[in-house]
C-alpha cells in the first residue's frame, strides 16, 4: 500500500512542479509563508500536508523552492517530502498551497518525538513572509499511553433492565470525524445497540497519563439528534445513579486502564456507576440543547473493555 502512495504522490509532484513561463512571473507585492511556525503530526498519519499561504493580489506566476533540514527525524527514514518545488499559477484563485509529505511509521519502536525543518529557500515572483520556515514534529505513537489505547475493543457489561450480560464493539481513537481531541479525550465509537438509536454512538473519555479515564457528568457529548415523535431529541452517553428510577448522575464515572493498555475497567462503586443514553430536547433552528427528557433503552453497568 505504501508503494502505491509513493507512486501516486510522485506523479502528483511532477504535475504540480510543471514549469511556468519565466516571462509571466508575478511583479505585484505578494508574500508567501507557512501558515504556522510549528506543526505536529502523529508518526502514523501516513499522508499529511503543510500549507503555504500566499498573501496579496498576484499578476503572474510564483515559484517557491524549499529546503528540508533533518533533525532527529531523517528524510527517507522517517518522512518523505514529495516535492521541494511549488509552482503557483497566476490564474489560480487559491491562497493556500500544500507541501505534501509521507510519514514513515517505525512500527512498535518506542522513541521520543522527532522533528525536522522545512524552509522557503528561494522565491521567484514574491517575497518571503512572516513564517519563512516551519518546524515539523512527529509524535511517537508507541511510547505515549494515549495512543496505545487506540484500537477496537470488546465491551462486556450487564444490562440493568434484564440483568443479562451484553457485548458490543467500541472503537477508540482521537477523532470523531469533525474534531480532534489529541491527548485530552479519547473518542469511543459504539454502544449497546438496544440503548442507542443507531447503534453507533460517540462518547468521550477524559484522558489522564496516570491510568485513569472518566466519562464527565458535566460535559456530555451530544452526538446526534433524532425524531422521537413528539419532539426532536439530542442524544448523548452519560452516567446514571444506581436507583430503581435512575437519574442523570452529577459526578463523573471513572475508569482505569492497565499497564499493558489492553483492559479498561469502569468503576462500579462510584456515585454514578451506570451508563446509558440521555435524551434532551433539541432546537433544530438554533442547535440549542434543552431539558432532559429521559433515557433511551436500559443503562448498563459492570462495563469492561478488552482490546481485540
| Biggest beta sheet summary | 8 strands, antiparallel, barrel
Instruction: Evaluate the radius of gyration.
Output: 25 Å
Query: What is the multimeric organization of the chains shown?
Result: single chain
SSE order, one letter for each helix or strand: HEEEEEEEEEEHEEEEEEEEEEE
- Total number of helices: 2
Give the overall shape, derived from the CA principal axes. elongated
- How large is the share of residues in beta strands? over 45%
Helical coverage, percent range: under 10%
The beta-strand count equals 21
Strand order of the largest sheet: 11-12-13-14-15-18-19-21
* Low-confidence regions: 1-20
**Integer average pLDDT:** 88
Number of domains: 2
Report the structural category: mainly beta
CA-to-CA gap between the ends? 24 Å
Amino acid at each position: 500500500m505504501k508503494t502505491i502512495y509513493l507512486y501516486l504522490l510522485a506523479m502528483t509532484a511532477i504535475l504540480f512542479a510543471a514549469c511556468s513561463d519565466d516571462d509571466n512571473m508575478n511583479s505585484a507585492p505578494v508574500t508567501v509563508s507557512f501558515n504556522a511556525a510549528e506543526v505536529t503530526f502523529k508518526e502514523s498519519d501516513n499522508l499529511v500536508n503543510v500549507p503555504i499561504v500566499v498573501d496579496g493580489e498576484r499578476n503572474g506566476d510564483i515559484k517557491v523552492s524549499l529546503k528540508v533540514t533533518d533533525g532527529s527525524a531523517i528524510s527517507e527514514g522517517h518522512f518523505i517530502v514529495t516535492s521541494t518545488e511549488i509552482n503557483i499559477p497566476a490564474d489560480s484563485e487559491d491562497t493556500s498551497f500544500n507541501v505534501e509529505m509521507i510519514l514513515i511509521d517505525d512500527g512498535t519502536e518506542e522513541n521520543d518525538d522527532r522533528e525536522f525543518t522545512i524552509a522557503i529557500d528561494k522565491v521567484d515572483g514574491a517575497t518571503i513572509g512572516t513564517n519563512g520556515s516551519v518546524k515539523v514534529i512527529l509524535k511517537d505513537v508507541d511510547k505515549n499511553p494515549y495512543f496505545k489505547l487506540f484500537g477496537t475493543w470488546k465491551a462486556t457489561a450487564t444490562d440493568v433492565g434484564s440483568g443479562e450480560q451484553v457485548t458490543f464493539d467500541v472503537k477508540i481513537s482521537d477523532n470523531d470525524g469533525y474534531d480532534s481531541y489529541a491527548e485530552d479525550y479519547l473518542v469511543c465509537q459504539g454502544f449497546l445497540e438496544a440503548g442507542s438509536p443507531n447503534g453507533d454512538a460517540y462518547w468521550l473519555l477524559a484522558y489522564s497519563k496516570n491510568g485513569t479515564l472518566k466519562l464527565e457528568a458535566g460535559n456530555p457529548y451530544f452526538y446526534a439528534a433524532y425524531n422521537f415523535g413528539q419532539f426532536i431529541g439530542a442524544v448523548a452517553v452519560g452516567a446514571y445513579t444506581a436507583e430503581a428510577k435512575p437519574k442523570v448522575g452529577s459526578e463523573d464515572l471513572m475508569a482505569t486502564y492497565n499497564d499493558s493498555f489492553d483492559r479498561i475497567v469502569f468503576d462500579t462503586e462510584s456515585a454514578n456507576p451506570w451508563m446509558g443514553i440521555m435524551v434532551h430536547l433539541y432546537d433544530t433552528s438554533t442547535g440549542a440543547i434543552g431539558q432532559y427528557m429521559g433515557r433511551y433503552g436500559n443503562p448498563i453497568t459492570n462495563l469492561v473493555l478488552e482490546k481485540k
